[in-house]
Hints:
Layout: H1 4-25, H2 31-46, E1 62-65, H3 71-81, H4 87-91, H5 121-140, E2 152-157, H6 158-162, H7 164-175, E3 181-187, E4 190-191, E5 194-195, H8 204-210, E6 214-220, H9 224-234, E7 242-247, H10 270-280, H11 291-297, H12 300-320, H13 322-333, H14 340-354, E8 358-359, H15 360-374, E9 378-382, H16 386-389, E10 418-420, H17 425-438, E11 442-448, H18 452-465, E12 470-474, H19 492-497, E13 503-505, H20 510-522, E14 528-531, E15 536-537, H21 546-549, E16 554-557, E17 564-568, H22 573-584, E18 590-594, H23 598-602, H24 606-612, E19 619-622, H25 631-634, E20 639-643, H26 652-658, H27 663-684, E21 699-703
Parallel strand pairs: 1-2, 2-3, 3-7, 6-7, 9-10, 9-11, 11-12, 12-14, 13-14, 17-18, 17-19, 19-20, 20-21
Antiparallel strand pairs: 4-5, 8-15, 16-18
Helix pairs in contact: 1-2, 1-3, 1-10, 1-11, 2-3, 2-9, 5-7, 5-17, 7-17, 12-13, 14-15, 14-20, 15-20, 17-18, 22-27
Amino acid sequence: MANTQQSHQMANAIRALAMDAVQQANSGHPGAPMGMADMAVALWGRHLKHNPANPQWFDRDRFVLSNGHGSMLLYALLHLTGYDLPMQELKNFRQLGSRTAGHPEVGHTPGVETTTGPLGQGITNAVGFALAEKLLAAEFNREGHTVVDHHTYTFLGDGCLMEGISHEAVSLAGAWKLNKLIALYDDNGISIDGQVAPWFADNTPLRFVASGWNVIGPIDGHDADKVDAAIEEAKQQSERPTLIVCKTHIGQGSPNRANTAKAHGEPLGAEEIALTREALGWTSEPFVIPEDVYADWDAKANGEGFESVWNERFDAYSKAFPELAAEFKRRMEGNLPANFAQVAVDTVVAAHTKGETVASRKASQLALEAFTAALPELLGGSADLTGSNLTNTKSTPNLRFDAQGAVVKNEAGVGGRHINYGVREFGMAAIMNGIALHGGFIPYGGTFLTFSDYSRNAIRMAALMKIRVIHVFTHDSIGLGEDGPTHQSVEHIPSLRIIPGLDVWRPADGLETAVAWACAIERKDGPSALCLSRQNLPRLTDAGMVGNIRRGGYVLSDMEGVQAVIVATGSETSLAMEAQAALAGEGIATRVVSMPCTNVFDRQSDAYQALVLPLNLPTVAIEAAHPDFWRKYVGRTGMVVGIASFGESAPATDLYAHFGITTRRVVEAVRTLTHRAAHRREVWMGNDERGHGLLSDQIVLSTT
């Protein structure tokens, strides 16, 4: 154990780097790093199992800075302990191209486990990390061979606990008895608006106790020895997660800014920094750390030792259980089984052969039956809508824990793989992010599409972090019927499509649904959302279209001498096919384009896009959603059949007729466009008796 003076100097190094970096950037949050510095000495200096030379070593402890605005705490720790984060990067804090962004970003800075900043999501990610560790330990550890054995630690503040998502996460962590989850609460009583007492009067310790947590403290968060002892006590827990309440002073050491909101989100100023250095007894120049302090923080030797011991354990495990070891490595590397391509083909062929008229949510479950049987890493769940989302399969029994916190296994020794998240859409989405970041699983979770609003920021974070998470959104339109406008999605699909990096699939039948699942599973660089119908959909595709379906948009049905294009998705694709047949009877030849994933289609070459959607052909798009999104595909002279208002409570067939999402409406739109096109050709030939051209703006056919 370090002596008191040594610990103070280690903490003061963090404080100095935080206030210097924020001052140089003229932007940032110095107060939280200065207040949590002693907590960091206790955890990072005495407990955290990690290896700076190999940040991705599997059995490392995970650390999540939930109050991500205090990012200089984490950057200082990574630099001081020996990660590849040189001092120049700290000097470039918050600058373009630096590895020290305003908030920590996974994949951008070595040693950062998750991107944090939106408060409350970090602690929720941490729950996902801890759950993944517990499930992998239950699946892979064997008597005398423990290869999965690490803790998840998180620092969090008042803001995290005010966010509603923290209630969802804390409740689930207690229910799941995540005993290796240890949260250190930076209880400083300050937020941007000042002292939090008038608006945050929760009894936080009792709240956590009520959720099944072990609570230690309050303790002095500026006494590293007391924090050290609390962490050691927490590590002895076998059944419950632990909250350590650390009473701290924001901006600790600053004579005039400590315990004030001014310490939270602005530089201290040169004069106050000088006074703080004097108060702390810190004599080094800005961005200079004494060699003895570097030596005290250096974690490289210990880290190498931690990993070496684990490597020896894993070597022994590999000899005793070679197949398990190979499976473990595959899973942790994020690779799919060698036979997955064949599994995908078989699943798609089965969907084609079955050829049923089923809701795409049911087609999704049929595809999942095959995929979950072949991929043990698929970890499903639903936010209390399992019977509606159809996210469960024969291979994914419900996840349960016994009274001692152990994973309940069936007679075959297999634990549950379907999570009942309860009515916690946001928590589910952020927990899935943590599971995916930890590794070893591909998480998917279901809810109604309209409730994606609850999940949206966590979906955005998954896209920002480029992680493989799959969202199953059922009841995707007015087609859900009688539940009415509170549950009928109108704007949701278009708004999800514009999240950078999120692939949004809206399949038209069973085959497209199976392909969507295969693509989502294969995709390692971002999340996917499957938007699925409640109502039955007819079979429209055949097995020969699989390659084109994978391209996001393709020609579903074509005719000689095509005069117009009809683009559709999901449940409206059958209306497009009906319209094509009706128009053919009038002598109007059309092409039907199915666009199950606009995001994937947009990544195709310009040549392919032009082949599918020729610029010189009038285009009509049809989707039971807000029409504005389709403007970029139909052009100025195209039309969109959609719905720009909220829905109504009625049977689905009545609603489609009421809002004009009908075959007749599509036929009328195509007829109008082809007649205009013919007239324009006459104008260009000089046949307009008025002697001038026609100006035709884009028309949106939607109910408002």
